[in-house]
Amino acid sequence: MEKLLTLLRKDSGKMVSGSQLSQILGVSRTAVWKKVNQLRAKGYRIESTPSAGYCYVSAPDALLPEEIRNGLHTQSFGREIYYKERIDSTNRMAGDLAREGAPEGTLVVADAQTGGKGRLGRSWISPARYNLYFSIILRPHILPGDMPKITLMTAVSISEFLNEQTALPVRIKWPNDLWIGTKKVGGILVEMSSEMDRVSYVVLGIGVNVNMPVKEFPEALRDKATSLSLELGQPLCRVELIQGLLGGLENDYRNFCEEGFKPFQKRWADLSLTIGLPVRVRMPQREITGMALGIGEQGYLRIKMDDGTVEDAVCGDVAVMAEQIGNDAPQIIKEE
Ligand code: BTN
After folding, report:
1. I need a surface site. Which of 9, 195, 228, 254 has the fewest CB within 10 A?
2. Angle between the 29-42 and 18-25 helix axes, to the nearest 10 degrees?
3. pTM for the full model?
C-alpha cells in the first residue's frame, strides 16, 4: 500500500491510470482499486474516474506510519514505526517491544492513550485527534546514573525545536517539563531497564499538547496547561511536528552519545525557567527550599540552601517562588 501511495503522491494532483499502476506494482487493476479503497478508508482523498484513473488529493491529519515516514530525514529514529489509534500507553508498549529486542530508534505513536503515564505516577491526558503521544526506544552505552542527562538532553532538543518552529517561548522547568509562560505544554517520561553498570534500554516518552482546545482540558487543568495552537491561534500539522522532533532528537542524541552532556549544559540553562530563582523542590522523602543555581554535570538541580550550603536535587517536582514584597512568606507562582 505504501508503494501505491508513493506513486500516487509523486503525481499529486494528476491522473494516473489504473493500468499503469497495476503494471508498475505487478498486481491486477482490481488489486489496485482495492488498495485505493483501503487508503481512502484511512482518510486519504483520492479521486477517480473509470476512464482516466486515480488522482491523489490529500492525506489525512493522522499520525499514520506512511505519513510519518514520507519526508522523514533520520537514520534510525522512526525507521520502525508502531502506530495505534488507541492504546493504554505508548511507553508501556515501547517497553514491551524493547524487552523483545526492538532496535534503537523504534517509534511507538498513538492518536489517543487510555492510560497515558506522567511523571511521579501521575496520568497524562491523552484524547484523540489533537496531540502528540510517542515513545522512542534507545539503547545508549551509559551508566544507569547518567539517565537524568538523557532526560535533560531531550527537554533541550524538544524546546529548541518548538521555539524555532513556532517562535513560541517554550521553556524548561526542571527536570523536563515544557512550559509556555505559566502553563505546561508538554512533558517527558523517561523509563529504563538496567543492571548495576549497564543500561539495557531506555524508553523516551514524549507528550506535546499540539491542537488541544480549552474544552478538552479537565477544568482543574485549564489555568495550568496549554497547547501550541492555543498559544499560536492556529492549528499545527502533527505529522510535520513529529518528523521535525524526531530529526532534532536523533541529532542531539548522537551528539550526546559522542560528546556527553557538556554541550547541553548551557543550552539547558538558556532555556531554563528555574535558574536564578528561589525554588522549593519536593522529593519523594523530603522537601528543600533555596536558590536554584544551575544544573550539575550529572543533570542534578543545584540549590543553594537558606543556610548557605549547596545541595543537589536528583528528582522531584520544582516550584518557582517569588518573594511577596513586605511579606516574608514566599508566594508560589508556578506549580503543577
Ligand atoms: C510528565 O508528567 O510531564 C510526563 C508526561 C509524558 C507523557 C508521554 S505521552 C507519550 C508517552 N506515553 C506515556 O504513557 N507517557 C508519555
Report:
1. 195
2. 100
3. 0.86
Edge-to-edge, what's the strand order for the sheet holding 287-295? 310-313, 301-305, 287-295, 278-282, 317-323, 330-334
Instruction: Give the pLDDT confidence score for residue 313 in this predicted structure.
Output: 81
Segment-wise mean pLDDT, segments of 10 residues, the chain, 336 residues: 88 90 93 93 90 90 91 94 97 97 98 94 93 97 89 95 96 90 95 89 97 94 95 94 97 95 90 86 81 83 86 75 37 34
Whole-number Å distance, alpha carbon 87 to ligand 1 midpoint, is 13
What DSSP element (H or E) covers 241? helix 238-259
Among residues 326, 328, 318, the alpha carbon closest in space to that of 277 is found at 318
Residues 93, 196: contact at Cβ < 8 Å? no
Q: Is 140 in the pocket of ligand 1 (CB under 6 A)?
A: no
Ligand 1 atom closest to the Cα of residue 184 is: 3
To the nearest 10 degrees (0 to 180), the angle between helices 147-166 and 238-259 is: 140
For residue 119, the CA-to-ligand 1 centroid distance in Å is 7
The answer to whether the beta carbons of residues 230 and 214 sit under 8 Å apart is yes
